[in-house]
Each structure stands twice: as structure tokens, then as C-alpha cells.
Amino acid sequence: MMGWIDGIMSVYAVSDLHGQYNTFIKGLEKIGFSDADTLYVIGDAIDRGPDGIKILRYIREHDNMDLILGNHEFMMLNSVPADGGPGFDGVDADIWLFFNGGITTYEEYGNISVEQKKTILGWLATRQVIKIIDINGTEFCLTHSFYIPGCENKRYDELTYDTVSHIVWDSIYRTGDDTHAEDIYGNYDHIFVTGHVPVQRIYMSYEGDDDYNRLEMHRHGNLLCIDGGCALGYNSGINNGAIFLRLDDLKEFPVPVVAQQS
Fold it and tell me: Quick one: which of 16, 45, 93, 153 could link to 195 by a disulfide (CB 3.0–4.6 Å)?
């Protein structure tokens, strides 16, 4: 497979795969992803769907892929022992396992060795939470949800729990709880690429759009959301899936959720 134009590197982003490994692979095929290209997964590769650990390992094993930490990886890091030991007694264990679909990831995680667990957790702890990249003179800010100046290109293990929590949880599209964020994006020159809240929910609840059931990026000024709703799984009755975005020209590649192989 070759990239956008044969021999020329392209940079892609996708978010919120939520354990949908087959959808992830289908998306890589659709964009013609090659060794010359780069892919950033902007958080929430795990949970709800069955293959989150498989996706993490795939990303880690490819030098031209990287993960920006999302709230689901954040909860995992603050739920299980860092030494790969048994149990889940961390501060986020209950909210991760029982309220945010973490149980599917925990069950998959339980089937790998202690050394493999330590490798995954150590790798997650060194992922960046906000990534700034320049593409042909345009500066992109990749963050799972929110932006806090001064945290650019900082790793998870370089920041405090509260700081990371705000970055991966807060959103202008969340209302009614303490994760609602101020719309600060117009104050900056970056193009922000985020996930966290499914675009269908944004179109329906935030925009009040009757035609909300579509798998396409949501734009709000210089803020782009590419969470296509993989969290809903296959055959949800909603037009959901993954949205691969080529940052070179902002071309979208929507991929409906693919059924898991039995």
C-alpha cells in the first residue's frame, strides 16, 4: 500500500476506536496506510469493544504510529497495579470497570503475561497528552478533548493527575457536570483535532441538527472532532464508526463499524 501520492508521506489521525480492531484494520486499508505514512490515534483505543489491548499492542509495534492518551487509557492507568500484578484497586477502578466499559479491556488484559502487562502500562505512561505537529506550515494540536497551555508535548508521567484529568475529560460538548469546558479554542492559532464526544451526539445535542445521523467530522471554528462513535459497537442502529482524517488536506475517510470475527 502507498500513501496519498505514491512515495509522499501523509499524516493521519483517528480517535475513539474503543476496541474495534477490525474497524481499525479496515480503516488502514481504506487510507492505503504505508510505512511512509504516520498515524496518530487520539485516545480511547480501549474499552467497550473487545480488542482494546490488541489495538494498543498494534500501535506500539509500529514505529509510524503513536497514541495520544485518552480518558479511557487514563482510567486504566489509575485502576490496575503498575507492576502488572493482579487486581484493580486504583482510584479510577470503579468508574473505569463498571461505568465506562473497562471490564472488556480488563478481561482481555487478564489473558496476557505479567511482563506484557508491565510493557503496556509502561508504554502508556510515557504517551503524550497533547501533541503539537507542523504540517506544511499549519500547526495542529492533537488532544483527546481539552487544551491546557504549557502541556504541549508533555508525557502523561510528567503531569499531575488533575491536569491530565481536565485534558482528557473536559469538553465544550459535555453539559450538566464538572467536565463542561469553556470554548477557548478561538484564542489560539492551532487547528485542534479531538475526539471524546461522538459526532452524532454533537450534531444532535449541541447543534440541534435533525440530520445528526451521519459519520463525518464536526467542525467548530478551528476545533475538529473525529469521534465517529465506535463506542456504540456494531449494528447499533446509528451510522457510527471511525473517522480517519488526513491532516495534509483534511480529507475524511469514514469507516462504519465492522463486525467482530467469532
Answer: 16
Q: Please indicate, yes or no, if residue 203 is contained in any of the structural domains.
A: yes
**pLDDT, tens digit (0-9, with 9 covering 90-100), for 164-184:** 999 999 999 998 789 999 999
- What is the domain range of residue 195? 11-256
Residue 105, C-alpha cell as written in the block: 479491556
> Rounded mean pLDDT of 45-63?
98
The runs of H, that is alpha helices, within the chain are 21-31, 52-60, 71-77, 93-99, 102-109, 114-125, 161-169, 199-201
> Per the domain annotation, does 6 fall within a domain?
no
Question: Reading across the β-sheet that carries 11-14, which strands appear in turn?
Answer: 65-68, 38-42, 11-14, 241-246, 251-256
Task: Report which residue type is found at 28.
Answer: L
Total tally of structural domains belonging to the chain: 1
Alpha-carbon distance of 8 to 79, in angstroms, equals 41
Tell me the C-alpha distance between 52 and 56, whole Å.
6
CA gap 101, 57 in Å, rounded: 19
- From the list 219, 220, 223, 227, the residue with the least C-alpha distance to 254 is 227
CATH number of the domain encompassing residue 184:
3.60.21.10
List pLDDT tens digits, range 129-155: 999 999 999 999 999 999 999 999 999
**Residue 261: pLDDT over 80:** no
Q: Is residue 262 in some structural domain?
A: no
Q: What are phi and psi of 52, to 5 degrees?
A: -65, -45
Phi/psi for 221 (5° steps) reads: 60, -125
In a domain? residue 168: yes
